[in-house]
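sorry to bug you again but im stuck and you know this stuff better than me. what follows is a protein written twice so to speak, once as letters and once as structure tokens for the fold. mainly i need to know what kind of three dimensional shape the backbone takes. anything you notice is useful, everything is just below:
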Amino acid sequence: MDFQNIPFRIIVLLLIQAFWIVSFFMVLQHVVIRMIKKERWHDWLTFYVPLIRNTVWILFIVRIIYTFGKYQPLLTLAITGVVLGLTWSILRDFVQGTVFRFQKGDIIGQQIQLDNFKGRIIKMGETKISIELKNGEIVQLPYSKLFTNVLIKPISNRQIKNQTLILPISNQVKIEEIKAVLTNKIIAYPWVVINNGVNVEFFNDEEHHRKVKLSFAISSSAKGILIEDELRSLVAGI
């Protein structure tokens, strides 16, 4: 591969730009978003920042191809063709996934029907979307399948059940520490409706035993017992 016709300063400039893109989105995602306390803004940025990052990288790759093409058009075209041929399905779903999420927004928790699959959306990944079927099975579908013959409808209120758990906790445990542990554990379950949030309250019963009350929404009431058992085991081990 002969890149001698490409000025060295152009390569350095592209590397610097790539570094600043990585640095900017790392600070934005791991520092700025964590500092935002308003739940609405936090959820909005958590969902859209990765999409904006993906869009920037797509445009940056196009810029690289265009820049190299001005100096080595045939070689750049050949390399681009080989890369597209080897990674076409991944790139297609990556680009279509970015476009799909910009169009539909955050639709986690909604019902989806595609061909023989019908269930609730539990995760929107970079190239695939995960849905939970009625039998509890998790199925991943590439975004390329979602552009045709797909039906998405909001989850009905009657499918959402309010779950309340009261668990005993040790008097030696720090409140903020166990609150963070329990909240993170609960929102990690795919059956919990994250947008409704998790309410954590601490109180002492008549015998002065410390307890924690957890309130959250769940889309599958059958999973409530599983969540309660796991949380009891978690609290007992802290």
Summary: The helical segments are 8-35, 39-71, 73-104, 175-187, 224-236.
